[in-house]
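Hi P.,

Sorry for the delay on this. The queue was packed all week, but I finally got your sequence through. Input first:
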Amino acid sequence: LDDTYQPCKSFLYTSAHDPTLDHNTGLVGPLLICRKGYLDSGEYKPKAFFLLLSIFDENLSLYAPPTPPSGPDASSIIAANMKF
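Then the structure:
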């Protein structure tokens, strides 16, 4: 095989709808696309792994609805100043 033949290529999946919201929801990850039949041919020998290093803010996720402050002094708390 020559150096230009690549039976598999890797890509990064990410959603472009709302990048910040989608990233923190987890809509990001590796994709491995291989030629038809290559994985079943016996030639495939995993030699690499994917590593994603990122900071995810779960408070900015689709699955974390905003929670209003509660308690006797709730009217004095500004949501932007809340520390989680």
